[in-house]
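In the design runs reported in the main text, the only information available to the sequence generator was the tokenized backbone. The following block is the verbatim input for one such run; it is reproduced so that readers can re-run the procedure and compare outputs position by position.
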């Protein structure tokens, strides 16, 4: 039997863990999946996608810096991709139309709720950052019906724009925007979606946002404790998670979309943690 071909497209791409994650899913499920990494030229993401599907490829994951371009390129988008404004999963539908989905939000929600047992329903959530990464996950987090989501960002106008964008799908959840210095009460869950740590920075938050039971979630991950989680631990946080589980869960949801089977994620998360 020949394998069906999948790939992740980005630039750069050599660091990507997706080929490893999907080959673990393939062995676990016995699905005939071959998954590679493709570095698209910055000027020709569209050509790379076209060529991949013309050669019979079945599905693509999309990563930095092409997620918005993937969203624009698609002929149709799922509702969660529409809200996210970015796509990390592409495939051809039954009519051969290029379809975009976004599994990042589903990934973070599953990691928090299923893997870490964190209740988001009725929770007071502080989200740090208002870029593409945060926009990508707000819809699925809102669907869990938290009591409030406060979006804090260095550029407050970007946080305000997200509040405006998501208010129509916010239901009973109170959505608000502010700067980093403003929040001074404890939250149930704090999600770091800024890229500040890439510059060795920390959002200038008050330690008052952290109480004993506050769950800290950094969407970044690294071998050592992330910069943000280290800061949170120093302020007395007792529950800190990084984004490795989110990475595996978003991959599992892409695999489910393509293959109709949900792979078990826990053994894969453990295997990657031990790499
Ligand atoms: P991504 O796709 O990773 O979300 P992005 O859209 O460029 O990338 O957004 C990066 C986010 O990290 C933004 O919220 C950004 O704040 P601004 O909107 O004010 O630019 C935030 N960020 C980046 N560097 C930061 C830093 N040094 N301190 C605090 N926030 C930072």
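Verbatim output:
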């Amino acid at each position: 039997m020949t394998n069906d071909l999948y790939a992740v497209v980005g630039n750069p791409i050599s660091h990507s863990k997706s080929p490893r994650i999907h080959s673990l899913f393939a062995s676990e499920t016995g699905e005939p999946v071959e998954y590679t990494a493709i570095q698209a030229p910055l000027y020709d993401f569209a050509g790379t996608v076209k060529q991949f599907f013309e050669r019979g490829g079945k599905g693509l994951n999309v990563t930095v810096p092409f997620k918005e371009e993937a969203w624009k390129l698609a002929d149709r988008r799922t509702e969660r991709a529409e809200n996210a404004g970015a796509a990390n999963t592409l495939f051809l539908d039954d009519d051969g139309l290029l379809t975009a989905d976004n599994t990042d939000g589903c990934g973070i929600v599953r990691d928090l709720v299923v893997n870490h047992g964190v209740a988001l329903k009725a929770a007071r959530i502080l989200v740090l950052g208002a870029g593409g990464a945060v926009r990508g996950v707000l819809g699925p987090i809102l669907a869990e019906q938290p009591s409030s989501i406060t979006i804090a960002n260095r550029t407050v106008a970007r946080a305000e724009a997200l509040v405006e964008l998501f208010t129509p799908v916010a239901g009973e959840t109170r959505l608000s925007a502010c700067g980093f210095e403003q929040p001074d009460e404890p939250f149930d869950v704090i999600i770091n979606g800024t890229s500040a740590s890439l510059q060795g920075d920390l959002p200038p938050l008050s330690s008052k946002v952290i109480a004993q039971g506050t769950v800290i979630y950094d969407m970044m991950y690294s071998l050592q404790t992330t910069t943000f989680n280290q800061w949170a631990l120093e302020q007395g946080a007792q529950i800190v998670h990084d984004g490795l589980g989110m990475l595996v869960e978003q991959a599992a949801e892409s695999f489910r979309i393509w293959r109709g089977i949900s792979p078990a994620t826990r053994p894969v998360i453990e295997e990657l943690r031990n790499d």
